[in-house]
Design brief:
The protein is an alpha+beta fold. It has two helices and three strands, in the order αβββα. A three-stranded antiparallel beta sheet has the order 1-2-3. It starts with a helix and ends in a 13-residue tail after the last helix.
Amino acid sequence: MANINKLMKQAAQMQQKMQKDMAEAQEALAKRTVEHSTGGGAVTATATCDGNIQGIKIKADVVDPEDVEMLEDLVLTAVKGALTEAQRISSEEMGKLTQGLNLPGMPGGLF
C-alpha cells in the first residue's frame, strides 16, 4: 500500500511540474513573433506564436484603388501564413513537453 501512495505522490508531482512547464512554454510562445510576407514583400504580417496578429505592413506602391481585391488577397495570405507558422512553432514547442505521453489532442501525444 505504501508503494501505491508513493506512486500517487510522484504522479501528482509530475503533473504539477508539467503544468508549470506548459504555462512557461505558453508564456514564451506569447512573446515569440513570426513574420510572413507575400507579393515579394509587399505585405508582411507579424503574429505571436500564441496566435495573435501583432501587425501588418503594406508597402505604399502595392496600394491601388483600382485593384483592392489584390491587396485583400495579399493581406489575407500574409495573415494566414503568419498564423500557420505560429501554430507550427507552438505545436513543436508544446510537443517537446508532451512527447511520449498518450494525451489525446495534445501535440506530441499519441493520437
